[in-house]
Structure formats: structure tokens, C-alpha cells
What we know:
14 helices; about 75% helix; about 0% strand
Amino acid sequence: MISTQHAITRARRDLTLGTLLKVALFAAAIGALLVQPLLGVRVDALLGLTIVGAVWAVLGFQSMRSSRLVAESPSLIASGQFDAAEQSISGAIHSFTIFRTVKLLSLHHLAALRHAQNRFADAAVLCRALLGQISRAGGATRQLRGAPEGLGRSTNLILADSLLEMNDLRGAGECIAQLYQHRLALGEALTLLLVQLDYESRVGAWPSMMRDAMTKVSLAELMSTPRSARTQALLALAAKRLGREEWSNWLVRRVELLVGDPKELVEKRPMLTELWAGERDASDVVRGA
């Protein structure tokens, strides 16, 4: 299993080497064109450019292996094949590539894997290292240089949820605030909705949670079953805390239809026990219904 610090160090080293190599190849190409007119030295410019192009092609071909490994990782993580995902990501991190995007995605996918493995401290460290590549001039609200569109946003989402799991409410709140400065894709907006409800439930922001509640319920229907159940359970808790019992009971019934036995949901978020407080445990509610 690749260690977090080793992955970060290796990625940073390869990013630096890749940049230096590209600068050197560019300088060589310019030199091949200008050395004869400037210095009067007889040099075959076409031959020099051909050599530079050949080196670039070889490096690009070698870099394709890393690209393939990176492309495999998300589907492996989503299907729960964590060992296979670990091997793919490790291979991508240890393979040299001149493509900056590949290394950034390798760190991102490793952070996603650690988050899926409930290793939230490692996921947070990886996310912060990746976000550290953001442009100095742009600060935390700008896209990563050389990164695909949305990489910074999805990394911030992983970081926010990891910090919540670590009970770092201040850090999670900062991440959420940064995300609201971007235009999010639908999938990102759904993830942010759950993260924000989770955060607001920790700080007791019940009125904010119930604002536009019906819209939030509609969005929850677009989520996966576990996420939808947690989202509606958090809304049910907010409604209960605000004395809106009809809303709370309606949402609780929807949660029970989704998950059948809400015991696992309650185990992950103990505060939700309040929704089934009249029973010995959450599973008794479902069996007695």
C-alpha cells in the first residue's frame, strides 16, 4: 500500500522534473532554429527539430501508460475494488509522465480511494497537497494550473467531507464557503448539498437546513440510495428540532422506504437516533411498522 507522504513526494518530484524537461526541450528547439543566425555556427535546424520531436514522442508514448492507469481508477473505486484501484494508482504515481494532469489526477484518485476506505486523515492530507498546486495569484478560488476542469472543486468536496468525519468543523466550513464561489455541475451540487446538511447539523443550523426543504428533497431523489437516505434523515432531524412534526414524520417514512433498516444510518450519524427514539433501536421500528 502506497503511503500518503510517499505519493505526495513522488508526484511533486515528477511534476518538477516534467516541467524542467519540457523547458529543456523547448529551449533545444529554439536553439536549433537560432544558433546558426545568431552565432554563425552551421547547424542543421531540421535535424535538431527532428531529434527534439522524437524525444517528445517517446516521452509522450511512455506517458500514455500512466494515463491508462489513471483512467481505470474511478470505476474500480466505485465498484469497491479497492485493491485493484490501489495498484492502478500506485502504478500511475510511480510512472514518469510529462503530462501534468496525469500526476494531479493520480493524487486526486488516491484521495478519493482513501476517503472510500474511511481513512479520512490521509484523504485530507492528499487533498491539501493537491490544492497546494493552485496558482499563487489566484489563491484558493482559482483552478489548478494544468488540471482538468472541476478537479479543484471535486477535491474540495472530498476535503470538506473528510474534515467533517474528523470533526474539524472550521475547516469543513471554509471548504464549503470556497465551493460556493464556483458554478458546480449537478453531481457536485448534490454532493455539496449532503456535505452542507451534515455540517449544519453539527453546528445546529436547523432553520438553514429547512430553507427550501422541498427543493432539497427533490434533489435528494437524484442521489444514490444511501446518500438520499442520509440527506432526508438530516432534513427530518432539522424538522423535528424546529417542531415541524408532520414534515419530520413524512421524511422518516421516506428514509425507511429507502433503506428498510435505518440501523446502519444511525450508527454512522448517532444524532439521528432521535428520529427513532421511541424504539430500542432503529431496526425495531421497521419490523414493527
